[in-house]
Amino acid sequence: MKATALAHALQHKPFLVNRSGSTLVNDDSPCLLSALFPHLDLWGIGGFNHPARSGESWISLKRQVKNLLQQVDSPFESDSLFSFICWNIIQKRAMSNNTTFSISSAWHHSLVEDLIKNVGAVHILAEKFERNADAKAETQEEKHAIQLFHELSMVTKNLQGSNGYKLCRRNEIRSLM
Q: Which of 44, 96, 116, 147 makes an SS bond possible with 34, Cβ 3.0 to 4.6 Å?
């Protein structure tokens, strides 16, 4: 995942895509509800992320799911897959929104320079890991790129349940005491 994220960042692309498995259905598609649950959205009008909603009329996926589950005699409430899939999408979005990479300040400049020098190896590793998660680095450049990945650490201080979140809450409690 680090290789893919770094390859993406080094190409100056505006966002990182965090996906696994099939890319048949996009999580942001307005027709997601109709595509996954045609038996629940019979008329195809209850989709999420409608493009006409913006600004004040925008409704978050979490809020929409909560509303669908709390309706009286809701078919969404009795469908176990609906809540499971929606919860996974919400968690995946929270993870991608709250994850950042961290490095020590002493390594910052040299790591950036090394990454720029090894862009090709990072791309090759990203492609290898996409095909096979257990792939091994073969060339010296790939091994050096793996060492660079070990210098990075992922920080998720705002993602509920993560170690970073727990540490932030503990530090908050200590500061209050």
A: 44
What's the average model confidence in pLDDT over 34-61? 76
Closest CA to 4 of 107, 15, 76: 15
pLDDT band, very low/low/confident/very high, at 16 (cuts 50, 70, 90):
very low
- Rounded to a whole number, what is the largest CA-CA distance in the chain? 62
The helix (H) or strand (E) run that includes residue 155 is strand 153-155
Element (H, E) at 27: none
Phi, psi of 152 (to 5 degrees): -85, 145
Contact by Cβ (8 Å): 3, 149: yes
What is the DSSP annotation of 75-106?
A: HHHH-HHHHHHHHHHHHHHHHHHH-EEE--TT
Tokens of 30: 């307005």
Q: Is pLDDT of 23 > 70?
A: no
Question: Please, what is the average pLDDT of the chain?
Answer: 78
Residue whose C-alpha is closest to residue 30's, from 40, 20, 44: 44
